[in-house]
Amino acid sequence: MLSIKDIDVYYGDAQALDGVSLEVEEGAIVAIVGANGAGKTSLIRTIAGINKPARGEIVYRGNPIAGLPSYKVCNLGIGQVAEGRQVFPTLSVSENLDMGAMLPRARELRAKNRERVLALFPRLQERLTQAAGTLSGGEQQMLAIGRCLMGAPELVMFDEPSLGLAPSVVQSVLATIHELNREGLTCVLVEQNVAVSLKLASRAYVLENGSITLSGTGAELLADDRVRKAYLGM
Amino acid sequence: MPAEIYLNVAVGGILTGLVYGLMALGLSVIFGVVRVVNFAHGEMMTIAMYLAILAFSALKLDPLVMMVPIAAVLFALGYAMQAALINPFINRPEHSQFILLVAVAIIMVNVLLIIFGPDARNVMTSYSFDSFQVGPLIVDATKVYAGAAAIAVAAVLFAFFRFTYVGQAIRACADNYTGALVVGLNVKQLYALTFGIGAACVGAAGAMIVLIVDVTPALGPAYTLLAFIIVITGGLGSMPGALLGGILIGLTEAMAGLLFSPSAKSMFAFGLLVIVLLFRPQGIMGKRVA
What is the ipTM for the molecules in this complex? Predict the structure, then answer.
């Protein structure tokens, strides 16, 4: 579904990604694991069209998308739940959801998707008129996921969805991602909670200093000594 | 002096201030969303004023009728400026954006000088010397029309930002730039739209103010400065603040002109700015920045 071949990304002179290649199959959960600063967010932002790769190819459903602006990438069905949630703090919850459906591909589906999102997160229904900035962290994460689903995505990249959330909320966010995947959504998951994300993932990649150093099924990586030592503290 | 005269001048000042407020609203909207300070704001105001004067002298079209078409022309000018000139500068340092817009402003002043010359021009409508009388209060008809039109335009703008998806999307860009990219908003196009809307405010304000003020090309920089004073007094980025700031500055100028001398107007407007900055640095309706 999504195929990345040998991309390099720079911020000025500093190289963030060096020859990264990976594959995302339709219906999969693909985990990307790595330390802070390894380039996980850069990778997601590059796929999303927010950063431009200096070299390499990104192919989505057979079409090259490297270098397309982010609004065009989104409209192809690649959604993103960004690090830090990135809700619109002074807009109401309802307006935030509407912003997710501004994509041409999603405009007609606005009412239907809204129903689906509010069924998935009843808490948002209670807070529709409230400013998003006044929500708790967990509620903001629900809103960020809901807003992304309003765009009718086929593939969603989740960047640290559990960061800064209470443990009980972390469980429910990850359960939601699992549930969305079972309903057919392809997921890319960047998660500090390595053990859980490898358990969920059908395929996983380890990113270190801007390069992929290891890949395999989630179970293989969970059993790998290097992963256990570096990321699981075992 | 009879007591009524104070009231008359105060009401006239408030009505003029509403038009100032509409002009400043444009600056505030552009800064609040695009985070670019439009140093050519007053110059765009004078362009709108000359358009109104041309339409009146050539075709006898009333400035109040021309308000909408002139706003549309300025919208197109603003949209084109953002799309062609400012978007490429959006990630450059602020001083290069500043110089870019100052350059645009100077070019505008000089083009107006070449076309229209330095002499003051105005319009003489059939109602230029009419006035309304309510009890002891006497107000110029031109100021009443201009003030009412300013309120109408501002109301349309508030409704646009509140109730339309595009208006909400523009507020979303102002709220969280990264968030706007993430959900797939076309931020550059929305920026161009915003600059166009800000310019349209100036266009409408310019068409109205020719009823009250004579125009010369040199008025441009003075209006840019005035728009800044108003926006900073009212609170940077606050739309109601811009209108309120306009009313206060209009009132201050009018009272200063009456009580001291018309040439002391600017002095008192700046005095108000200094007082506001001393006691409420974020402006009257501005949000405190942590």
Answer: 0.91
Q: At B130, list the tokens.
A: 């009419």
Which stretches of chain A are DSSP H helices? 40-47, 70-75, 93-100, 110-120, 122-126, 137-149, 167-182, 194-200, 218-223, 225-231
Distance of CA A126 to the CA centre of its chain: 26
Domains of chain A (ranges; CATH) run 1-76+189-234 (3.40.50.300)
CATH topology of domain B3-279: ABC transporter involved in vitamin B12 uptake, BtuC (1.10.3470)
Contacts with A48 from chain B: Cβ below 8 Å: 181-182
State the DSSP H helix or E strand holding residue A19, giving kind and residue range, or none if neither: strand A14-24
**Residue B139: beta bridge partners?**
B132
Query: Who among B176, B179, B184 is closest to A71 (CB)?
Result: B184
**φ, ψ of residue A8 in degrees (nearest 5):** -115, 135
Shortest distance between the Cα of B32 and any Cα of chain A, in A, equals: 13
Residue B108's region, left for phi above 0, alpha for psi from -120 to 50, else beta, is: alpha
What digits encode the pLDDT tens for the residues B212-270? 999 999 999 999 999 999 999 999 878 899 999 999 999 999 999 999 988 888 899 99
Per the CB < 8 Å rule, is A74 touching B183?
yes
Segment (H or E) for A205: strand A203-208
Question: What is the β-pairing status of strands A211-216 and A63-64?
Answer: unpaired
Percent of chain A with pLDDT over 90: 71
Please give the angle made by the CA atoms of B248, B254 and B258, to the nearest 5 degrees: 140
Give pLDDT, residue A7.
Answer: 93
Buried b (16+ CB within 10 A) or exposed e, B1-19: eeeeeeebbbbbbbbbbbb
For residue A195, the model assigns a pLDDT of: 86
Q: How far apart are CA B256 and CA B245, in angstroms?
A: 16
Supply the pTM of this predicted model: 0.91
How many beta-carbon pairs under 8 angstroms link A with B?
Answer: 67
List the single residue in B169, B179, B184 with the smallest CB-CB distance to A86. B179
Question: Which residues in chain A have their CB less than 8 angstroms from residue B180's CB?
Answer: 88, 99
Any B CB within 8 A of A103 CB: yes
CB atoms within 10 A of CB A195: 16
Closest chain B residue to A47, measured at CA: B182
The pLDDT assigned to A167 comes to 85
Average pLDDT over residues A62-70: 93
Residues of B within 8 A of A95 (CB-CB) are 168, 171-172
> What residues of chain B score a pLDDT lower than 50?
290
In eight-state DSSP terms, residue B289 is P
Nearest to A91 among B168, B181, B187 (CB): B168
CA distance B50 to A189: 58
Is A82 close to B184, i.e. CB distance below 8 A?
no
The kind and range of the H/E element at A158 are strand A155-159
Domain ranges of chain B: 3-279
